[in-house]
Amino acid sequence: MQSNIDAEASTRLANDTTLQSNIDAEVAARVADVLAEENRGLAAEGVLQSNIDAEQTARIAAVSNEATLRTNSDTTLQSNIDSESATRLANDNTLQSNIDAESSTRTTNDTALQSNIDAESLARTNSDKKMTFVSVGEAEGLLAVNDYPFGFGFGSPSKAGFGLAIPFNFVIVGFAITVDSTDTNRSIGFGLEHYDVNGNLSTPQFGNVTGSLGMSNVYNTNLFTDPYPPGNICIKVNSAQGLSDINARYRFTLFCQSLDELGYERPS
Fold it and tell me: What is the pLDDT of residue 217?
């Protein structure tokens, strides 16, 4: 029995030794596998970290390059903007200067033109004032008070309402009275009467024109009466003294100016 126990013990011990050897071999194998996996993982992680570091470096470089490019581009753009702004400002200043110069020139020319227009208008006005029509009434012999002895045209004497016919609005700007007579102490008073187209005697605001003829001829060149409407101008003898020359001759010249535009304009 002891022999069996010893044999079983020897067998157990041998088996235990084999088992321990297998366990040690398995542990060594596991350790080796773990170490190999660790080494592989460490190697893979090293490659990954290297790739990450390279990518990070590449990204940082790309961002830096892009930032530098943007900065340079922005600087170039701002420089272009500043240059364009300076050019536009210079051109605007030149344009404004040209506008100011043109405005000044136009103002000067407009002033000169208006001055020329005013001068021309004044010249035309003055010329118009110099443009008159002249009518001559003549009479002969002894003059009688309240008579209308002056004839216009072919010598037919006038009468109240029948004298020098004028068909438009007018003013009398002057008159002259001349005489050829042997009378040495004459004194004659004349009056100008105006009758409208209906034969009505009109009285201007400042009264009718009068003229006195003594021993000298009369020349009145600054009369400018009130405006007269169309009608007849008649010369009336208001007073007469010292007349004896039956061959005396009298000439009454009227200088009138139209207040209407006269002349014919051919229809287009």
Answer: 84
Q: Band of the pLDDT at 154, cuts 50, 70, 90? A: low
Over residues 100-120, the mean pLDDT reads 91
In contact, 171 and 256? CB cutoff 8 Å: yes
Task: Give percent above pLDDT 70 in the chain.
Answer: 91
In the chain, DSSP finds a helix count (H) and a strand count (E) of 1, 10
Which runs of consecutive H residues, i.e. helices, occur in the chain?
2-130
CB 254 within 8 A of CB 175: yes
Phi, psi of 190 (to 5 degrees): -110, 150
pLDDT tens-digit map of 71-93: 899 899 999 999 999 999 899 99
Distance CA 140, CA 251 (A): 9
pLDDT band at 30 (very low <50, low <70, confident <90, very high): confident
Q: What is the pLDDT of residue 68?
A: 87
d(CA 45, CA 42): 5
CB-based contact 136:252 (threshold 8 Å): yes
Greatest Cα pair distance in the chain: 219
- The answer to whether the beta carbons of residues 229 and 196 sit under 8 Å apart is yes
- Give the SS3 label for residue 182: coil
Is residue 258's pLDDT more than 50?
Answer: yes
Q: What single letter denotes the amino acid at residue 14?
A: A
- CA 79 – CA 154 distance, rounded (Å): 99
Q: Which two tokens stand for residue 130?
A: 């110099």
Half-sphere exposure in the Cβ direction for 140 (13 Å, CA): 4
- Closest-CA residue to 213 (of 247, 245, 181): 181
Write out the two tokens for 5: 């126990």
